[in-house]
């Protein structure tokens, strides 16, 4: 049985004037239209194709690459609003259906929405804005400091809600974010802590002294480029530190402290200086 709304590896079983048919197992033969066929394409070849539906709701294979697939959270553009719901551009010829019942606010064409892609009870590929239904309720088996993939899903008074590894909610606090973040952006992050209530706090930088050596190298490299001096002090804004080194001011100070202990830099009132050999 093929996985609808996902990539499948299927064998070519026969040619036709309008394409080739692939072995879909219990789902029968599935057409790969001529315009999507690789060259060459012979009976017995195994092809990686995406399985979706055509305009008449028949299973169809394509080599087009969708922006996301079933089981994914995605940030997609509203292409049209119809009587039955909205249709989203997900990179395929046939748009992705977002029923009114799965919308959480009024939409208009041209907007972007964050959705989860799933198969409804009729195995139709469908989108939903009701994200909480698709987030795992059981606590995740994460460790503090663990590297994770984050999908930025919402802006809140606290900061940003992010989906962790496509499974759980987490929070990035505004006062710990020193870079622009956008809805639908995918970034690398870290588990900062798991609270007693199971909620997860996140960070965009490695915790503690992990990664400080790399930041220290960046500081030294920039000092060398700037003839051994940088006008960075306690009063330097966190945003300026992030602009220069891509880390929080706290993380920068950890790395700078390590360089100071190694006697590679001196810290003065007007800035930091490279110690000459």
Commentary on this structure:
The protein is mainly β. The protein has four domains: 7-62, Beta Barrel (OB fold (Dihydrolipoamide Acetyltransferase, E2P)), CATH 2.40.50.140; 73-132, Nucleic acid-binding proteins (OB fold (Dihydrolipoamide Acetyltransferase, E2P)); 147-203, Nucleic acid-binding proteins (OB fold (Dihydrolipoamide Acetyltransferase, E2P)); 212-274, Arc Repressor Mutant, subunit A (Orthogonal Bundle). The protein contains three helices and 18 strands. It has helices at 212-225, 238-245, 249-261; strands spanning 7-16, 19-23, 29-33, 46-53, 59-62, 73-82, 85-89, 96-99, 112-119, 125-128, 147-155, 159-164, 168-173, 186-194, 200-203, 229-230, 265-268, 271-274. The strands form four sheets. The protein has a five-stranded antiparallel beta sheet with strand order 3-2-1-4-5, with no helix packed on it. A hairpin with a 2-residue loop joins β1 and β2. The mean pLDDT is 92.
Largest sheet: 5 strands, antiparallel
CATH superfamily of the largest domain: Winged helix-like DNA-binding domain superfamily/Winged helix DNA-binding domain
Q: Strands of the largest sheet, in order across it? A: 3-2-1-4-5
> What does the radius of gyration come to?
25 Å
User: What is the name of the CATH class of the largest domain?
Assistant: Mainly Alpha
Helix content: 10-25%
Which residues form runs of ≥5 with pLDDT under 50? none
CATH architecture assignment name of the largest domain: Orthogonal Bundle
Distance between the termini: 68 Å
CATH topology of the largest domain: Arc Repressor Mutant, subunit A
């Amino acid at each position: 049985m093929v996985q609808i709304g996902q990539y499948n590896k299927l064998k070519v079983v026969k040619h036709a004037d309008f394409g080739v048919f692939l072995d879909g197992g219990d789902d029968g033969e599935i057409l790969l239209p001529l315009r999507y066929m690789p060259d060459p394409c012979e009976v017995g070849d195994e092809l990686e194709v995406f399985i979706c539906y055509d305009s008449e709701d028949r299973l169809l294979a394509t080599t087009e690459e969708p922006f996301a697939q079933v089981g994914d959270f995605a940030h997609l553009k509203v292409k049209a609003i119809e009587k039955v719901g909205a249709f989203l551009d997900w990179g395929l010829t046939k748009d992705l259906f977002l029923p009114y019942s799965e919308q959480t606010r009024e939409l208009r064409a041209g907007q972007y929405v964050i959705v989860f892609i799933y198969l409804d009870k009729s195995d139709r590929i469908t989108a939903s804005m009701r994200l909480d239904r698709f987030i795992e309720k059981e606590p995740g088996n994460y460790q503090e400091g663990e590297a994770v993939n984050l999908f930025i899903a919402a802006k809140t008074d606290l900061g940003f809600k992010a989906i962790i590894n496509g499974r759980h909610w987490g929070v990035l606090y505004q006062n710990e974010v020193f870079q622009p973040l956008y809805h639908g952006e995918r970034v690398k992050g870290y588990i900062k802590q798991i609270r007693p209530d199971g909620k997860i706090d996140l960070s965009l930088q490695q915790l503690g002294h992990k990664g400080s050596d790399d930041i220290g190298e960046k500081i030294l490299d920039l000092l060398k480029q700037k003839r051994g001096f940088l006008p960075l002090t306690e009063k330097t804004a966190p945003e300026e530190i992030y602009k220069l080194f891509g880390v929080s001011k706290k993380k920068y100070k950890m790395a700078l402290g390590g360089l100071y202990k190694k006697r590679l830099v001196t810290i003065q009132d007007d800035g930091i200086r490279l110690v000459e050999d």
